[in-house]
Each structure stands twice: as C-alpha cells, then as structure tokens.
Design the sequence.
C-alpha cells in the first residue's frame, strides 16, 4: 500500500509539472512535455492495476487530465492555426485542482491560455502580422502585466473567453439535445404509422377472407337455385305438352272430320 501511495504522489507531481510546462510558451525543440505525458500514461496504467488504487472518480479525473495533455500535444502538431483552434475547442480539461494551492484547475487555465493564444494567432494572420510583431506584442503584454489594472483586464478577458466558450458548449449541447429529441419523436411517429398500417392491412386481409367465404356460400346457393329452376321448368314443359296432346285428342273426338 505504501508503494501505491508513493506512485500516486509521483503521478500527481509529474502531472502538476506537465501542466506547468503546458502553460508556458514552448519552442519547437521542446521535448520534455511529450516524454512526461508518455510517463504519465504508464503511471496511470499502473495506478489502475494497483490493489490500493484511488476511487473511480479520482481515476476518471486523472484520465481526463492526461487525455487533455495528449490532445493538447496533438493539436500543437497541426499545421493550420484554424485547425489548432478547432482542436483546442473540443479538448476537455480536468474538473478538480491537481494540487491543493490551486484556485482554479491548472488544466482549465492551460485550456483558456491555449484558446487565447490560438485566437491571437488567428487575429495576427488576419491582420497580416508576422512572428516578430507577435513577439513584440507578447513582450508588451508581459510589460503591461506589471500594472495591476492590466492584470485585472487580462483576468476579465479570460473570464469573458471562458464564459463565451461555456455558452457555445451549452448551445451546442442544447442543439444536440433538440436533435436527439426530434429524432426520437420522428422515430416514434414512424413506428405508430407502421403499426397503424399493419393493423389496417390485417383488417383488410380478414375482411377479404370473410368476403371470400360469403362469395363462396352465395355461389353454392345460386348453383342450387339454378338447378331447382331448371327442374321446375322441365316439369312445366312436360305438363304443358301433355295437356296439349290430350286437348288435341279430345278435340278430334268431339269434332270428327267432315266428309
């Protein structure tokens, strides 16, 4: 159990160090963060397999922070600034502070700084500013941070950016929820229509069977009636012929032929 506790402490220290490096502007030759994140993944696997592993909620937050750092590294490898900004938009930082003295989770601060950096790069591309102009602007910004008023303005800008992205995420979630609700309603409506069609088809088939049985019965009755009619007509003809024959004989007897 002591080894597992030491492993978790080392993991937290390395995670805090990675978040600190990620908050700084790194050059293209910076390799430590990628190596550290790889070590974090190995330590996270060891924590999951440990007999005295942390609670599932803590492990979930650890995994969220490691995945955030991995996504941050993958976003930085993209060539286009717009692609970087879009990739950073979908990153999910940690929800709890890594160390006790953090007022805001460090990963969330890194997320805000990265979004602001991507926004600044996109603005510089649109304005036609080069890297030297960007560096000079950043140096001026560092000098302005000495003034407390500018610090408050920067904090207010970060809060505004955070609120803006939070509103976008809520709007996106609401749209997805509406789409899911509409899809569910359409599916239920189609199911009801299909069910009604099946019921109508079943009733039509039953009615067709009933009509067929009735038609069969009526055909048999008509056939029997036709046979009876033929018999009556035959007997009537026989009676009529017999009556005519007898009448002729009587007529001849009563009125003999004149000579």
Sequence:
């Amino acid at each position: 159990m002591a080894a597992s506790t030491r492993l978790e402490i080392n993991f937290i220290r390395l995670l805090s160090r990675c978040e600190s490096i990620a908050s700084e502007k790194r050059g293209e030759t910076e390799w430590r963060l990628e190596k550290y994140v790889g070590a974090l993944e190995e330590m996270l696997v060891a924590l999951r397999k440990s007999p005295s592993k942390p609670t599932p909620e803590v492990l979930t937050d650890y995994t969220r922070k490691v995945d955030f750092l991995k996504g941050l590294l993958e976003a930085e490898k993209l060539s286009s600034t717009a692609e970087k900004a879009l990739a950073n938009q979908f990153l999910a930082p940690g929800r709890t502070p890594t160390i006790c003295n953090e007022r805001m989770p460090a990963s969330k601060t890194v997320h805000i700084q990265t979004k602001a950096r991507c926004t600044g790069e996109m603005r510089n591309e649109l304005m036609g500013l080069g890297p030297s102009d960007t560096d000079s602007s950043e140096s001026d910004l560092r000098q302005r941070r000495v003034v407390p008023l500018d610090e408050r303005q920067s904090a207010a800008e970060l809060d505004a950016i955070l609120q803006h992205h939070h509103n976008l995420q809520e709007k996106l979630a609401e749209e997805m929820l509406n789409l899911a609700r509409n899809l569910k309603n359409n599916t239920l409506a189609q199911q009801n229509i299909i069910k009604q069609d099946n019921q109508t088809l079943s009733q039509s088939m039953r009615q067709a069977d009933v009509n067929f049985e009735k038609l069969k019965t009526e055909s048999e009755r008509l056939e029997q009636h036709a046979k009876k009619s033929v018999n009556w007509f035959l007997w009537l003809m026989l009676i009529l012929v017999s009556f005519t024959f007898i009448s002729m004989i009587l007529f001849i007897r009563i009125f003999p032929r004149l000579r």
User: Anything to note?
Assistant: Helices lie at 2-23, 32-49, 56-76, 81-89, 106-127, 131-144, 148-254.
